């Protein structure tokens, strides 16, 4: 399964990719900002999950989410927003834009696992 991680922090991208790898997800693409993220989405219609930061240069995560949701190819793709913006208003804004789940930094690998399984509909027995 192909996933896309978009974050302007190379360290955060590496942390997320390493966590995903430990969970068995090894087909992970990266973007440094929303523009790169959109370019990856546009070139790889087989991406199954988008994990994006909110605060990034050029195109922020919220703008990326809106652009992805406006494209009929990606209307159903699960999107997880990963951000330091943990206020209730920010969460509501993200959900209204089409985000399926929300992770506030800093987070543990277990939180990422739980949120990813939730958006993919994976239930542990």
UniProtKB/TrEMBL annotation:
Its cofactor is Mg(2+). Gene3D superfamilies: 3.40.50.2300. Coiled coil: none annotated. SUPFAM superfamilies: CheY-like (SSF52172). Signal peptide: none annotated. SMART domains: REC. CDD domains: REC_CheY_CheY3. It comes from the Bacteria. Keywords: Chemotaxis, Flagellar rotation, Phosphoprotein. GO terms for biological process: archaeal or bacterial-type flagellum-dependent cell motility; chemotaxis; phosphorelay signal transduction system. The modification 4-aspartylphosphate is found at residue 53. It holds the Pfam family Response_reg. The keyword Cell cycle does not apply. Residues 2-120 form the Response regulatory domain. This is RESPONSE REGULATOR. It comes from Wolinella succinogenes (strain ATCC 29543 / DSM 1740 / CCUG 13145 / JCM 31913 / LMG 7466 / NCTC 11488 / FDC 602W). The lineage of its organism: Bacteria, Pseudomonadati, Campylobacterota, Epsilonproteobacteria, Campylobacterales.
